[in-house]
Amino acid sequence: MTQQISITPLRLEKYYFSEPYFLSPYRFYVAGTNNSINKLEDFFGKKLGLQTGTSSHENIKALDPEGKIEIVSFSPDTVATIPNNVINGKISGSTTAVIIFPNLKENTGLDIKMVGDVIFTEVNAFPFRKDEAGKKLRDEVSKVVVEMREDGTLEELANKWFGYNPMEGLDANEALDKLLEQYRRDGLIK
Question: Keyword Signal: yes or no (predicted)?
Fold first, then answer.
């Protein structure tokens, strides 16, 4: 059994990861009436709502090492209140995966909008224990992921369940290399 797992610095310390199987670009969202926020720096001195323990939390901290953005943490139990907090002005915005935003907007019925360019891209892969058995299993799973990517199975499944291919026009290994390079540059990994 597995679920969508993003590669993060903390997880890299603890797990081996398979070849990436999914890329998930993230953008900011704000109230529909907010025209002053379009990029990371526009959040300096403002409150950004994020769920604790997520890749968004880790990535924003890495992108804002001086802590100029006030992160307001939401637990898994309260994360669903983030859009309402954006609308009522308790926070200026949040982040979400581009693929999730249309459902978020539709399900809440709130006047929210995505702004700016992609701020980071989650690289999703399967985690394995950091031992010999985990390494062996990682290698076996990675082989299957590559085969599924090359024979079109991953694209077919993504189109069936998400309505589009999140890997289209993207190179999973290039995205992973960029992510790891950013983490090294930020001193989050060696």
Answer: yes
